Amino acid sequence: MLTPEIHQLAVRNAQIATDDYIQQNGEHPFNCGFAWVTTFVKGNTKLGKSFIAQGFKKSYDGGYKLWNPSGHNTQDMSAKMAGTKAYVDTVERYLPEVKLYEGSRLD
Protein backbone atom coordinates (compact mmCIF):
# COMPACT_ATOMS: atom_id res chain seq x y z
CA MET A 1 0.00 0.00 0.00
CA LEU A 2 1.17 3.52 -0.77
CA THR A 3 1.08 4.98 2.71
CA PRO A 4 1.17 8.73 3.35
CA GLU A 5 4.67 8.28 4.82
CA ILE A 6 6.04 6.59 1.68
CA HIS A 7 4.33 9.16 -0.54
CA GLN A 8 5.69 12.11 1.47
CA LEU A 9 9.22 10.64 1.41
CA ALA A 10 8.94 10.15 -2.36
CA VAL A 11 7.67 13.73 -2.84
CA ARG A 12 10.51 15.07 -0.71
CA ASN A 13 13.06 13.08 -2.73
CA ALA A 14 11.46 14.41 -5.94
CA GLN A 15 11.79 17.97 -4.64
CA ILE A 16 15.45 17.45 -3.76
CA ALA A 17 16.23 15.84 -7.14
CA THR A 18 14.52 18.68 -9.03
CA ASP A 19 16.34 21.33 -7.02
CA ASP A 20 19.67 19.52 -7.47
CA TYR A 21 19.12 19.30 -11.23
CA ILE A 22 18.44 23.04 -11.47
CA GLN A 23 21.45 23.92 -9.29
CA GLN A 24 23.75 21.76 -11.42
CA ASN A 25 22.35 22.56 -14.87
CA GLY A 26 20.31 25.73 -14.58
CA GLU A 27 16.86 26.07 -16.10
CA HIS A 28 16.50 25.65 -19.85
CA PRO A 29 13.66 27.88 -21.08
CA PHE A 30 13.34 26.06 -24.41
CA ASN A 31 12.81 22.69 -22.74
CA CYS A 32 9.34 23.57 -21.46
CA GLY A 33 7.18 20.58 -20.64
CA PHE A 34 5.46 18.26 -18.23
CA ALA A 35 6.38 15.14 -16.23
CA TRP A 36 4.29 12.59 -14.38
CA VAL A 37 4.22 9.14 -12.82
CA THR A 38 1.84 6.44 -14.06
CA THR A 39 0.80 3.17 -12.44
CA PHE A 40 -1.67 0.59 -13.69
CA VAL A 41 -3.04 -0.62 -10.37
CA LYS A 42 -6.75 -1.43 -10.21
CA GLY A 43 -8.60 1.47 -8.64
CA ASN A 44 -11.12 -0.69 -6.78
CA THR A 45 -8.48 -2.60 -4.78
CA LYS A 46 -6.89 -1.60 -1.47
CA LEU A 47 -3.65 -0.93 -3.31
CA GLY A 48 -5.35 1.18 -5.96
CA LYS A 49 -7.30 3.13 -3.36
CA SER A 50 -4.06 3.87 -1.50
CA PHE A 51 -2.62 5.48 -4.65
CA ILE A 52 -5.81 7.46 -5.23
CA ALA A 53 -5.74 8.66 -1.62
CA GLN A 54 -2.25 10.11 -2.26
CA GLY A 55 -3.38 12.15 -5.26
CA PHE A 56 -3.15 9.80 -8.24
CA LYS A 57 -5.95 10.52 -10.73
CA LYS A 58 -7.58 8.26 -13.30
CA SER A 59 -6.05 8.94 -16.71
CA TYR A 60 -7.97 9.01 -19.98
CA ASP A 61 -5.30 6.80 -21.56
CA GLY A 62 -5.36 4.19 -18.79
CA GLY A 63 -3.87 3.83 -15.34
CA TYR A 64 -3.52 6.43 -12.64
CA LYS A 65 -1.23 9.45 -12.90
CA LEU A 66 0.44 11.83 -10.51
CA TRP A 67 1.52 15.00 -12.29
CA ASN A 68 4.75 16.76 -11.32
CA PRO A 69 5.47 14.85 -8.09
CA SER A 70 8.08 17.43 -7.02
CA GLY A 71 5.50 20.22 -7.14
CA HIS A 72 8.26 22.52 -8.46
CA ASN A 73 7.16 25.53 -10.52
CA THR A 74 9.94 25.20 -13.09
CA GLN A 75 8.93 24.77 -16.71
CA ASP A 76 12.11 22.79 -17.47
CA MET A 77 10.95 19.30 -18.39
CA SER A 78 14.34 17.75 -17.63
CA ALA A 79 14.26 19.11 -14.08
CA LYS A 80 10.74 17.74 -13.62
CA MET A 81 11.89 14.38 -15.00
CA ALA A 82 14.66 14.24 -12.39
CA GLY A 83 11.97 14.64 -9.74
CA THR A 84 9.75 12.04 -11.37
CA LYS A 85 12.60 9.51 -11.42
CA ALA A 86 13.33 10.14 -7.74
CA TYR A 87 9.65 9.62 -6.89
CA VAL A 88 9.52 6.34 -8.82
CA ASP A 89 12.78 5.06 -7.32
CA THR A 90 11.59 5.84 -3.78
CA VAL A 91 8.19 4.19 -4.12
CA GLU A 92 9.62 1.12 -5.86
CA ARG A 93 12.12 0.71 -3.01
CA TYR A 94 9.19 0.26 -0.58
CA LEU A 95 6.71 -1.36 -3.00
CA PRO A 96 8.77 -3.52 -5.38
CA GLU A 97 5.65 -5.38 -6.49
CA VAL A 98 4.18 -2.20 -8.01
CA LYS A 99 5.49 -0.97 -11.36
CA LEU A 100 5.59 2.80 -11.84
CA TYR A 101 6.39 4.52 -15.11
CA GLU A 102 7.91 7.93 -15.74
CA GLY A 103 6.27 10.04 -18.43
CA SER A 104 6.91 13.43 -19.99
CA ARG A 105 6.15 15.58 -22.97
CA LEU A 106 7.28 18.91 -24.33
CA ASP A 107 4.82 21.77 -24.31
Brief sketch in words of this structure:
This protein has helices at 4-25, 46-53, 77-94; strands spanning 33-39, 57-58, 64-67, 100-106. With 107 residues, the protein is an alpha+beta fold. The protein is globular.
Describe the structure.
The chain is of the alpha+beta class and about 110 residues long. It has one domain. It contains three helices and four strands; from the N terminus they run αβαββαβ. It has helices at about 5-25, 45-55, 75-95, and strands spanning about 35-40, 55-60, 65, 100-105. Strands 2-3-1-4 form a four-stranded antiparallel beta sheet, with helices on one face. Helix 1 (about 5-25) packs antiparallel against helix 3 (about 75-95). The longest helix is centred in the first third of the chain and has 22 residues, at about 5-25. The relative contact order is 0.28. The model has no long low-confidence stretch (mean pLDDT about 95).
Number of strands: 4
Shape: globular
Multimerization state: single chain
Q: What integer value in Å does the Rg equal? A: 13 Å
Order of strands across the main sheet: 2-3-1-4
Low-confidence stretches: none
> What is the count of structural domains?
1
Characterize the largest beta sheet: strand count, sense, and whether it forms a barrel: 4 strands, antiparallel
Distance between the termini: 33 Å
What is the mean pLDDT?
Answer: 96
Could you tell me the strand content as a percent range? 15-25%
How many helix segments? 3
> What structural category characterises the helix and strand content?
alpha+beta
**H/E element order:** HEHEEHE
The amount of helix comes to 40-55%
